[in-house]
Specification:
The chain is mainly α. 67% of the residues lie in helices and 0% in strands. The chain has 2 domains: 131 residues, no CATH class; 123 residues, no CATH class. Helix 2 packs parallel to helix 4 and helix 5 crosses helix 8.
C-alpha cells in the first residue's frame, strides 16, 4: 500500500485536458520562437524577463501577435531600446483590448513615435507607488488613454463649400471676355488695309476661324456697351440677336423683352426670325396693284433690251410706259 502511487486529482486532469484543447504552443517551442523572432527582426539584446514575456505572448497569442508587439516598440521613433518586460506587456495588453487599432498597420506603429516608452516607465518607477510586476498593467492604461485621443480624434470639419453661382451669372465673365476680344479684333481690322492681311494677322495671333472672328466683332459692335443685354443672354443668343437675319424692329422688340426679364434664348430668337418672312408676305399682299413689281415677262424683256442698241431701250421704255399707264388706269377703274 505504501508503494502505491497517488492518483492525480480529477480537477488537475480536467484542467490539463482543457489547456491541451486550446492548442497552445509548448513552452520550449515558444521560447525558441521568441529567440528566432528577435534575430529575424534585428532587435537589440533583451533581458531574461523580457524574453520570458515574449515566450508567454507566443504561447497564448501566437507568433503574429508577438511579432507586431516587437515591431511596434523597436520601429517607433525613439523606442529602439524600449524592448523591456513592462513595455512588452503593456503594448500587448493594448493590442488585445483594442484590436481595431493594430489593424491600421503602419499608422499604429507611427502612433508610438509620440510616446517615450522608457521615460514613462522610469517616471512610474520614480513615483514609488507601483510594484515592479504591476508596471506593465498601469503602463497599458496610460498608453490606451494616450492612443485613444489619437485614434478617436474628431475629424476636422470640412471647409464649407462656396455657394454655387448660377449659370446665368457664371457665364458673364466669359461673355465679357469675348466682347473685349471682339473690340480688339475690330481695332486691328481698322488698322489693316484689307481683309486678306487681316485674316493673316488673326490666324497668326489668335488661331480663330473666320466665322468666329465675324461673330466676335459683330457682338462687340452691337452690344459692346450694353451690359444690360450681355448680362442676360448666352453667347449664342447674342450672336443671333446681333445678326443680320433680324430686322431692326424685330431686334428692338426682342431687346425690350430681354430687359423686362423675360427668358429669351436661341429658341425665342429663331422664332422671331421665322416670323419676319410671314410679316413681309402680309405687307406685300396689302400693297396697291399699281405698286406691284414688274412681271417675269417684263423683266425678261428689259434684260433682252439691254443687249440691243439704244433704239431698243427707247422702244422698251415706251412699252413700259404704256404698260405702266394701262396698269394704273386699270387700277383706278
Amino acid at each position: 500500500m505504501g508503494n502505491s502511487k497517488k492518483s492525480a486529482p480529477a480537477g488537475d486532469l480536467e484542467t490539463r485536458a482543457f489547456i491541451r484543447s486550446l492548442g497552445l504552443v509548448e513552452w520550449g517551442a515558444a521560447l525558441e520562437a521568441a529567440k528566432r523572432l528577435l534575430i529575424a527582426l534585428e532587435a537589440p539584446p533583451v533581458l531574461p524577463e523580457a524574453l520570458e514575456r515574449l515566450q508567454k505572448l507566443i504561447r497564448y497569442h501566437g507568433e503574429a501577435h508577438a511579432t507586431l508587439v516587437i515591431r511596434t516598440i523597436i520601429e517607433s521613433e525613439g523606442n529602439e531600446l524600449a524592448l523591456t518586460e513592462p513595455v512588452i506587456s503593456a503594448v500587448s495588453q493594448v493590442m488585445t483590448r483594442r484590436p481595431e487599432w493594430p489593424d491600421k498597420g503602419l499608422v499604429w506603429i507611427a502612433s508610438f513615435d509620440r510616446i517615450p516608452l522608457l521615460q514613462l516607465v522610469d517616471t512610474m518607477r520614480g513615483l514609488e507607488i507601483f510594484r515592479e510586476e504591476s508596471l506593465g498593467n498601469y503602463l497599458a492604461i496610460s498608453l490606451e488613454s494616450r492612443l485613444a485621443r489619437l485614434f478617436t480624434e474628431a475629424p476636422v470639419p470640412e471647409a464649407p463649400r462656396p455657394a454655387k453661382i448660377p449659370l446665368s451669372e457664371a457665364r458673364i465673365p466669359a461673355i465679357m471676355a469675348k466682347v473685349a476680344l471682339g473690340r480688339e479684333l475690330a481695332a486691328i481690322r481698322e488698322q489693316t488695309p484689307n481683309n486678306r492681311k487681316f485674316g493673316e494677322l488673326v490666324r497668326g495671333k489668335y488661331d480663330l476661324e473666320a466665322q468666329v472672328v465675324s461673330d466676335l466683332m459683330r457682338v462687340a459692335r452691337v452690344y459692346g456697351d450694353r451690359a444690360d443685354i450681355t448680362s442676360r443672354l448666352s453667347w449664342r443668343a447674342l450672336v443671333m440677336l446681333s445678326g443680320s437675319v433680324l430686322s431692326a424692329p424685330t431686334r428692338r422688340s426682342l431687346e425690350k423683352r430681354v430687359l423686362s426679364d423675360e427668358r429669351i434664348g436661341v429658341a425665342q430668337i429663331e422664332e422671331a426670325a421665322k416670323a419676319k418672312p410671314a410679316i413681309r408676305a402680309k405687307a406685300a399682299a396689302k400693297r396697291p396693284a399699281g405698286r406691284m413689281r414688274a412681271s417675269a415677262g417684263e423683266r425678261a424683256a428689259w434684260r433682252e433690251a439691254s443687249k440691243r442698241p439704244f433704239n431698243g431701250f427707247l422702244e422698251l421704255w415706251s412699252r413700259g410706259g404704256s404698260s405702266k399707264s394701262e396698269t394704273q388706269t386699270g387700277a383706278r377703274e
